[in-house]
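Recap from last week: sequence in, structure out.
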Amino acid sequence: VKVKIPFGNKYLDAIFSVPEKKSTYGVILTHGAGGDMNFPHLLSLAAYLASHGVLCLRFTCKGLNVAYRTKAFKTVVEYLKLSDDYKLSGVFLAGRSMGSRAAASLIHQLSQDDDDDDFIQGLICLSYPLHRPKLQSKLRDEDLLCIRCPVLFVSGSADEMCEKKLLEGVASKMKAPKKIHWIDKANHGMAVKGRTTDDVMEEINAQVFSWLRENVELEHR
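Predicted structure tokens:
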């Protein structure tokens, strides 16, 4: 289902992947610095989640400024929260690369607001860009260290923007419950020599879904 979400004086293009049965939880998904919501990894994940009963809303926001992308993400969360068509009890924010930075930044922002109402259940970071290539001294970890909700990282063990030891170090300092799934030998774009994109995506999709299920079940015990 295609929708246009009002954002300032323009609109954000978005698409709902709707499961057959009514979903109580949803995932909001966005792309990295390049590409848009039809990036193959996002298409694959959205289709997988919907076929496993999780509503997925993915959107395009072209700005290259994290603050702007964060604002766009907030608009999409509010849109879904107020939606009459899909009454959800909670959502997980997910993004690829820069999209995951925007999601982390938004969760940090909202957690500082007094009206934080637990609508956001968790964060999924696909290829989180912890640092610029070869600039390991400047870590983009300030939002991650302030987040309290569960976080899943899916990163390539050869990601040039997220050195394995550095992410593990940041994770050990995080207050939030967190899990890291390493895609062996994958780079920032999740490409692995000798494996097809579909094969890598199957691994990522299955990890994301099983983590979602664990975290939704924890809620309902």
